[in-house]
Specification:
alpha/beta, 8-stranded antiparallel sheet, 7-stranded mixed sheet
């Protein structure tokens, strides 16, 4: 029987550390154990008040529940976040970071965004206590990229911000953020916590309308928490008991309650904040202003085409389209109706091959269901081949600075299977990249429809993906494969350093074709 996971969230601490951790210890003994304590709003206070933390840093006092905090909301608080090793302030007290998605061991997904919205005049540059549209989009993409398929995104469990979203009690809340409204609208958290206004406020639940990411109308509960130890004794600590959204029954997510209100983020004017084509549901969410200042919906003819833009390439001049004279046909091992298998140019070893589309298709995300079915046949055939050799297969695709779908395939000894994911993670850290883990790929809809990405399918059937492609190293996959933990051949990272003469290539093709023959479905 699945047990719900327990989480605590508190509002502005402002240096009242003794009061906070004493209260948390009581709650944990009475209603716990709690997996995590999250702090929104201002964690640090005046210099004198912050001295209460010294006893915890020195180990004289202990924090009983792992505690994670957001970043500064004021310029003067930046100093408390400097020189933190891995975000750790002291035992069981950690700075989450400026923005991201934190997944607990239980599977609970917590999206977070630190600071306050930067002034429009600041452009892309902002202070450490501010966030921009780029930060919001990064969080949004991190949430959406992990969806199971293009139509069943289920949202995240919790969204943590310090600043309020625009659309909630503006008469008392002049410093709310439209970017946070956009983020909430896009990622659809089950719970959204914030603070810094010094009040406790919990509105009735509201339901996000379905959009391109999901066919479900998902429910959000918005909660603002008061300051720890406030004189009015307003609620500053909130206990949650929930099952991770990916494990919850669908009925529990979509079942409506009697006290729901209309989503406060529908129809907000976002001109100058978020462009129309940057939202998952522009038709319901964004409006134009006519010359008289009245709000109106965009006309059907004015809506921008949101389908992925496909680069038009002359197939006769493409190096990889099978009909092109430029294809090095002596490298081809097997040909299907939609894909063909070829020896890699400049291979790392004799087991290094490529799966390529026969027609000009830019990436796997744009494959039809028939294309996907044949691609899966090639992958499964290669898995069986490598298994017969005591090996496991790894597939990678780089949809970046290339216009034709190419999937790199290489085999590793079975004993190295567990090292492959760790090697990707090590290299990702080296190049300052962030990867999301996906379940086994079953459809092209699981991949980003628009924009570049890098994908690695691992022997355990999970996949690693990143859309963090600015300055992405073109040899990243080879960097991983050639690393000391795997093939230990750094000299082969650049394919140009591994070029074989024509006769060697032909011999390798003949040898691989013999090994592949028992698994080759293209001869059926």
């Amino acid at each position: 029987m699945d047990v719900n996971n327990k989480i605590l969230v508190v509002g502005d601490v402002r240096g009242r550390f003794k009061q906070l951790f004493s209260r948390v210890e009581q709650v944990n003994k009475k209603a716990g154990p709690f997996e995590i304590l999250c702090c929104v709003g201002d964690f640090f206070g005046a210099e004198k008040q912050n001295e209460e933390l010294i006893a915890y840093k020195n180990g004289f006092k202990h924090i009983t529940v792992p505690t994670y905090i957001l970043g500064p909301n004021k310029e003067e608080d930046k100093k408390y976040y400097e020189d933190l090793s891995d975000g750790e302030i002291c035992t069981n007290l950690t700075y989450l970071g400026k923005r991201g998605v934190y997944t607990l061991s239980s599977g609970v997904k917590i999206a977070y965004l630190s600071g306050v919205e930067a002034a429009a005049s600041s452009g892309t540059k902002c202070s450490e206590h501010e966030f921009t549209k780029a930060d919001v989009q990064a969080v949004r993409n991190s949430c959406l990229i992990a969806k199971n398929c293009g139509t069943d995104y289920r949202g995240v469990d919790v969204l943590l911000t310090s600043q309020w979203p625009y659309g909630m009690q503006e008469e008392q809340n002049s410093k709310a953020s439209k970017l946070i409204s956009f983020l909430c609208r896009e990622i659809k958290p089950r719970y959204h916590f914030c603070a810094i206004n010094g009040v406790y406020y919990e509105c009735p639940p509201f339901r996000m309308p379905k959009d391109e990411t999901t066919q479900f109308e998902l429910c959000t509960r918005f909660i603002s928490l008061a300051d720890v130890g406030n004189a009015n004794k307003a609620k500053y600590i909130y206990a949650l008991s929930l099952k991770p959204v990916d494990k919850a029954r669908l009925l529990d997510l979509v079942q409506k309650t009697t006290n729901e209100i209309e989503c406060p983020f529908i129809g907000l004017k976002m001109d100058g904040v978020i462009n129309q084509n940057e939202t998952s549901e522009s038709r319901q969410y964004f409006y134009d202003m006519d010359s008289s200042g009245n709000r109106k919906r965009r006309s059907e003819t004015d809506k921008r085409d949101k389908r992925p833009r496909i680069m038009h390439i002359d197939q006769d001049n493409c190096w990889f389209c099978l009909s092109s004279e430029k294809v090095e046909k002596h490298l081809i091992i097997a040909v299907g109706e939609r894909f063909y298998l070829a020896l890699a140019k400049g291979p790392i070893n004799s087991q290094h091959v490529l799966i390529l589309s026969t027609q000009h298709i830019p990436c796997a995300a744009q494959l039809s269901s028939e294309d996907w079915e044949e691609l899966l046949k090639f992958k499964n055939a290669l898995r069986k081949l490598f298994k017969s050799l005591g090996q496991v297969a790894c597939f990678t695709e780089r949809h970046y600075k290339t216009s034709h779908l190419i999937i790199d395939v290489i085999g590793f000894e079975e004993g190295y299977a567990w090292k492959i994911k760790h090697s990707f993670e090590d290299k990702a850290e080296e190049f300052n990249l962030e990867f999301e883990t996906l379940p086994a790929l079953t459809s092209p809809k699981m991949l980003p429809e628009v924009g570049p990405y890098f994908l690695a399918e691992l022997p355990d059937d999970t996949a690693l993906i990143t859309r963090q492609m600015k300055h992405f190293p073109l040899h990243f996959a080879r960097d991983v494969f050639c690393s000391e933990n795997l093939l230990n051949c750094d000299e082969k990272v650049n394919w140009k350093d591994c070029l074989l003469d024509n006769e060697e290539e032909k011999a390798n093709v003949v040898e691989f074709r013999k090994r592949f023959a028992p698994f080759d479905f293209t001869d059926d």
